[in-house]
Please model this.
Amino acid sequence: MTTTEPRTTLLHMWGIEKSFLGVRVLHGVDLELRAGEVHALVGENGAGKSTLMKILAGVYQADAGGIELGGRAVAFEHPLQAQQAGVSTVFQEFNLLPERTVAENVFLGREPRRRGLVDAARMNADTTALLADLGLDWLTATRRVRTLSVAGQQIVEIVKALSYDARIISMDEPTAALADEEVELLYRLVGTLRDRGVTILYVSHRLKEIFDLCDRVTILKDGAVVDTVDTAQVSADELVRKMVGRPISSFFPARVGNAATGDVRLKIAGGGNDQLDGIDLEVRAGEITALAGLQGSGRTEIAHALFGIARFTRGQVWLDGRPVRPRSARQAVRAGLALVTEDRKAEGLALNQSVVANARLVLDAVRPRQSGHRAKRIPGILSSLDLVSRGGDQEVRFLSGGNQQKVVLAKWLATDPAVIVLDEPTRGIDVGAKQKVYTLMRELTARGVAILMISSELPEVIGMADRIVVLRDGRVAGELPGGADEETVMALATGHQTGAGTES
Model:
């Protein structure tokens, strides 16, 4: 996104230093934000992005350096000070009360009063005016937040930020949990805010969003600024190289030779339930089969059916030639299945427990008698994944997103699965960590493991899959070879035209 005229500097952070327990995480960082621009902040997990955002938000205080806002020196010692100065932050983890209304969340802690009581009518009216001003008439002030989609909750956070007359809004991975159609809604809202002169600091691992939305980008690596460039003046390859030292073309490793026979390890014939119909699918030893399709097409529903979460009520499933019908996750694991869920924090990890305790979770729950023996392999598995941690006793919540994902993978690898279902395996992790996950996937298939991958990122599907099964409305729309182009995949997913593959 290019700008047509110069913009004035609104925020200047310079020489920012920050250490935790003697470990320096920011090294003299400089950041300049201009009025009315969308400015991307990118870098690998652990590069210092979140720490810099929290210093700007008043959550942390810098050890050295300074901040100027609108030409005046500021020092935020509390998030409320930052908000009152016009700097608001929308964190990846929402700070909303689900049982309260949109208006009650927007004005939480500063509700308008009348005769000592909360003036609900005024609060609702003020929230309605904010929503209408942004073209969000479909969202009502009196609606309970728990009834909203993730995108709707994201919008409530942004409206809350604007209610402080925000001049700068920091957004941390705002689309990480959004469906494609919800991303478009966020795009429009960001464009509206920029047109009104609001500055957006946009943190994302998704390169497409950076080039679609952002005017400039600052790259952090190991706590220091590598460069700040106009997005119009840099290519995706150059941006990635600045972040991790490798071109994007190297992210999808070539398939390595393997001794697998190529026998069918997982087969579904006529699988169906309330959400799926007539699913025919095979996954062979040593291959990656990808499930592609729009949100709600049935991708995750297949994973849940295989794992006994929402069982197939029609059809048959075979695993290594044996008929199976798991009625629970425990039965699925014992049959040889593994499921890496799309939300690692909510469904894949015990965040307050240690690395080793998490890596043993499935073994202890499903194979308690063999757990002690099999757990002896866990240190080797963690080492093979290049896990970066303080040690096996470190609590998982203190790891980066990429390293948390490695712990999830270790948990399942400890069970020696025949088939691994990977649901959004690289969601919310940086480009460097993605490459390591891709390499691991290739290594697993080289050992004869069959992988069923579910992904919303078409470049990932095309770059990693040996076969692509496209779903639409709970049915198989067609099958394509690995390396098929994005247009053909989307044609099958949307039903606008017949793709180049076999259509059902």
Summary: The mean pLDDT is 87. The radius of gyration is 24 Å. DSSP finds 19 helices and 23 strands in the chain.
